Amino acid sequence: MDSEARTLEMVFPEHTNPLGNAFGGFVLGLMDKVGSYAAARRAKKPVVTVAVGRVEFKVPIRSGDLLEVVAHVVKVGRSSLTVQVDVYKERFGGGEETRVLATRGELVYVAIDREGKPTRVDA
Ligand SMILES: CC(C)(COP(=O)(O)OP(=O)(O)OC[C@H]1O[C@@H](n2cnc3c(N)ncnc32)[C@H](O)[C@@H]1OP(=O)(O)O)[C@@H](O)C(=O)NCCC(=O)NCCS
User: Fold this and answer.
1) Atom of ligand 1 nearest to the CA of 49
2) What atom in ligand 1 is closest to the CA of residue 118?
3) Which PROSITE patterns match (predicted)?
4) Whose CA is nearest to atom 4 of ligand 1?
5) How do the domains of the chain map onto residue ranges?
6) Which end of the chain has less neighbouring CB within 10 Å, N or C?
7) pLDDT above 90: residue 123
């Protein structure tokens, strides 16, 4: 599938606050990276992030959780691509029955040419 990207990442203590919950910025960074991979796959061109839409942190993510970040292109414009990014958390060693949707957001990317200007994405 050319408009999807995914990755797995472990949450380590350095990604958390003193309460043991993951920093929102750590999760957002993962979402932005994987979202850009999905957008660039679809565009077949480099992309940059132009906007981060609504992001919902539904349940806390803790140190030791395994995160699966799944990104799908949901809309393609002239040069822009909107990507839905879902973050599932799973207890490391807990099995798939511990897997829950933890965070969801929409990010927008723009395909760029060599000068960094917006360039058309093929339909
Ligand atoms: C992204 C960038 C190349 C766009 O350049 P621009 O001249 O403003 O582009 P345009 O106004 O022609 O818009 C290009 C596309 O982006 C979309 N767009 C622009 N701003 C947007 C926003 N705030 N939200 C959603 N889409 C947006 C436009 O609707 C357009 O979509 P379309 O081509 O599918 O119709 C430029 O703003 C840029 O380089 N920004 C910095 C990107 C960056 O460094 N990101 C990393 C984060 S630090």
Assistant:
1) 45
2) 3
3) HOTDOG_ACOT (PS51770)
4) 118
5) 4-111
6) C
7) no
Residue 86: enclosing H or E segment and its boundaries? Answer: strand 80-91
Q: Tell me the per-residue pLDDT of 71-99, one tens digit each, with 9 for 90 and over.
A: 999 999 999 999 999 999 999 999 989 99
Measured in Å, residue 119 CA sits from the centre of ligand 1 at 10
Architecture, CATH, for domain 4-111 = Roll (3.10)
| C-alpha span between 118 and 74 (Å, rounded) | 19
- Identity (one letter) of the amino acid at 43? A
What strands lie across the sheet with 65-76, from one edge to the other? 4-10, 65-76, 80-91, 100-111, 47-57
* Residue 78 Cβ contacting ligand 1 at under 6 Å: yes
Q: What is the DSSP letter of 49?
A: E
